[in-house]
Amino acid sequence: MGDGSGEGANLLEVEDISLAFGGVRALSDVSFQVREGELFSIIGPNGAGKTSMLNCISGRYQPDKGAIKLRGRDITRLKPNARADLGIGRTFQNLALFGHMSVLDNIMVGRHHLMKAGFLRGALYWIGGAQREELEHRREVEEIIDFLEIQAIRHDMAGTLAYGLRKRVELARAVALKPDLVLLDEPMAGMNLEEKEDMARYIVDLNEEWGMTVIMIEHDMGVVMDLSHRVMVLDFGRTIAAGLPDEVRNDEHVKKAYLGEDDEVLREQELAVS
Fold first, then answer.
1. Which pLDDT does position 134 carry in this prediction?
2. Helix (H, G, I), strand (E, B) or coil at 165
3. Local structure of 240: helix, strand or coil
């Protein structure tokens, strides 16, 4: 999939982002661009700074240095809610669903910022446009439920679901935001092969059919290389490689950092191939 799309204008620009927690540097001068319509993946070993990068983009963290721009607008200091209003949605590495709420209500939470009816219109629900608005939101949520094939569990409590289904519901909630850019933090972690295949299909469809630009963190190298248009590799908070999947897969720095291969192993592999 690495050469098919993602050739539009830059949707997101990350410029020289640095972030530290006490004496620990999580990110050091990280820069990259994500084009409109692209599926862009960030990979690297544990502790490489991947989730910290997503947190800077979504507004959960404020970087110590650098700038983040969405369609040319500097959003570096905006709060997470303001970034959601501008069209940035996300999922989390650790599930953040409301376990005591139904699947439907969890997804409706994702629509909350899109609701225009204020308090007065809500009080005059049957007179004003709030009822029509809620019905429209319900219709769009049902479309997402159908897309992610979770019709049978729409009224189940989120906390009672199997792990793979909860990951799917969290994706539904992020999509309910109708984002231009969706940030996926390990969407396939802890899934079996069948669940991974389903999730990969949903992500590709979101990108290709729904037109969402995707930034994904994922440990499964095969999934990343199959789905992504471009890949960036972080190690100890620094960018060590970026480019098309095949370029990154064959980069020796990536093999050493991400796969833990040392120079001797690399030389043995090269000799075996030659």
1. 66
2. helix
3. strand
Q: 108: helix, coil or strand?
A: helix
pLDDT score, position 70: 97
Token code pair at residue 226: 């199959």
Gap between the Cα atoms of 227 and 216, Å rounded? 10
Q: Which conformational region is residue 68 in: left (phi greater than 0), alpha (psi within -120 to 50 degrees), or beta?
A: beta
Q: Enumerate the domain spans of the chain.
A: 1-87+179-274, 100-172
Query: In DSSP terms, which residues pair with 184 in a beta bridge?
Result: 216
Q: In whole angstroms, how far apart are CA 116 and each of 121, 180, 218?
A: 9, 19, 35
Give me the pLDDT at residue 69, please. 98
170 neighbors 99 (Cβ within 8 angstroms): no
The DSSP bridge partners found for residue 231 are 41, 243
Q: Provide the pLDDT for residue 196.
A: 93
With a cut of 70, list the residues of the chain below it in pLDDT.
1-7, 93-95, 112-134, 258-274
pLDDT given at position 94 = 62
* Closest by CA position to 49, among listed 18, 27, 16: 27
d(C-alpha 257, C-alpha 118), whole Å: 52
Predicted confidence at residue 157, as pLDDT, reads 94
Q: Which CATH class is domain 1-87+179-274?
A: alpha beta
What's the sign of the alpha-carbon dihedral 71, 72, 78, 82? negative
Q: How far is the C-alpha of 249 from the C-alpha of 272, rounded, in Å?
A: 18
The token duo for 201 is 């299909």
N-term to C-term CA, the chain: 28
Give the pLDDT confidence score for residue 108 in this predicted structure.
85
